[in-house]
Design a protein that fits this description.
With 474 residues, the chain is α/β, with parallel strands linked by helices. Among the domains are: 31-158 and 202-301, NagB/RpiA/CoA transferase-like (Rossmann fold); 415-471, no CATH class. It has 24 helices and 12 strands. The protein has helices at 8-16, 19-25, 32-41, 46-62, 64-77, 88-101, 113-118, 120-126, 136-143, 160-170, 183-200, 226-232, 250-264, 300-303, 319-322, 325-330, 341-352, 354-357, 369-373, 380-393, 399-412, 415-433, 446-449, 462-471, and strands at residues 81-85, 106-109, 130-133, 203-206, 210-212, 217-222, 236-242, 246-247, 272-276, 290-296, 438-439, 454-455. The strands form 3 sheets. Strands 1-10-7-4-2-3 form a 6-stranded parallel β-sheet, with helices on both faces. Strands 8-5-6-9 form a 4-stranded mixed β-sheet. A hairpin with a 4-residue loop joins strand 5 and strand 6 (217-222). Helix 4 packs across helix 13, helix 10 (160-170) crosses helix 11 (183-200) and helix 17 (341-352) runs parallel beside helix 20. The longest helix is centred in the C-terminal third of the chain and has 19 residues, at 415-433. It is globular. The termini are far apart. InterPro entries: 4Fe4S_Fe-S-bd (IPR017896), 4Fe4S_Fe_S_CS (IPR017900), FTHF_cligase-like_sf (IPR024185), Helical_ferredxn (IPR009051), LUD_dom (IPR003741), LutB/LldF (IPR004452), LutB_C (IPR024569), NagB/RpiA_transferase-like (IPR037171). One of its GO terms (biological process) is lactate metabolic process. GO terms for molecular function: 4 iron, 4 sulfur cluster binding; metal ion binding. Keywords: 4Fe-4S, Electron transport, Iron, Iron-sulfur, Metal-binding, Repeat, Transport.
Amino acid sequence: MQVTSRRFKEGAHDALHDKNIQQAFSKVKSGFPVARAKSASELPEFEELRDSARDLKNHILENLDYYLEYFEEQVQLQGGRVHWCSSYAEAREVVLHICREAKAKTVTKGKSMITEEMALNDYLSEHGIEPIETDLGEYIIQLAHEYPSHIIAPALHKTKDQVTELFHENHGKYGFNERLTDPQALVNEARSVLRDKYVAADVGITGANFLIAETGSTVIVTNEGNGDLTQSLPKTHIAVSSIEKVVPTLEDASLFLRLLARSATGQEMSVYTTFSTGPKRMEDIDGPANFHVVLVDSGRSDLLGSDKQDLLRCLKCGACMNHCPVYQAVGGHSYGWVYPGPIGAALNPHMVGLEEARHLPNASTFCGRCEEVCPVRIPLPKIMRHWREQAFETQVTPKPERWGIGIWAFFAKRPKLYRLMTRVSARALKLMAGKKGVIHKLPLMKGWSSVRDFPAPEGATFMEQWKKQQREGK
């Protein structure tokens, strides 16, 4: 997919003035966050589980090579095959080769963020293979020729009326000519359209929430059952996963599963949790004849041992964005790449380059809610702060911003001069505001004063007020 992170400010501005996006995202605050809080409160050991999950993830990352090789051994013992890919390009070529071996004309796909990273759908289409998204949200945005605005709810930015129009425009060729408005009727219509495609598909592609080293199994978590049909009906199943998804044992997977759904949607468990272990065996009623796991690095291993390694703990639950006031205001597409919200602001600069994504670490109030709700306690504000520092040090930050910070630093290192300047500035701003106490336009503060009034100081600085109270014995 095309990276547009450098246009974050423009994208955010457009989203703030888009009535459909504002209508769609207005429900986020009262949806996922409320459900998560309720679900977490009903599990007394929830916080202890978060600590255990964080520690286990750290152990896995310290021994990642061992667990990945162990996983490959077990996949091979079960009759499957693992493909190691260092880049998106290599992974796309491997998937295409497998599809051509299967003589595939159509491919059904379960929800997968790593295939979004790879832009796999476009690649397959360019080479004559039709990819069909089967997750309802992914199916909607595929019809709209868009990309996900949320990790677990890809079409969160779409209103019901927009979905109605999409289905009406695209489903006439399948005999659906009525413009439906009832949500359940829309779901049923999508299911009817997709049903034949499941059966006709030559290859099924899924992601993987977890890779279990001790059994060579892949695990997917869904609420629709589409993942099960995608990986069991075609003759070939390809599971595409990034390398950090491996866990040592089935018991370890259960720890993460207890946290994942609660953090993502507020459910105790997702409706479907499916384990796939190798191709179909003689005694199996159904299942794929061929089983492939495509492991994608694409920069993950560069995070190991760095000050941003904690990002590899991410379970892709979306809790951080569900609770982020910036994400709730500007939506997911403003971030300009696969991962929006706080995890995007922390991860995308590494994945697409700091110069491209330099605005994202600044798209945070540093309220700390993202770290507060992360099931594996990723210090997202700390990582965003690291990116800000790195942008300044490498001169990715524009010169005016660097000069402004440099001027502030000059005074901040000289307390007496700093206090003098704050006194002068406070009084100057008070004079500019006049009797109303607000400033409508402020030089060098266009980003603030173009959309809101700037409240002027009352005149005295904090230090002056503090000293006055001390003298008066308050």
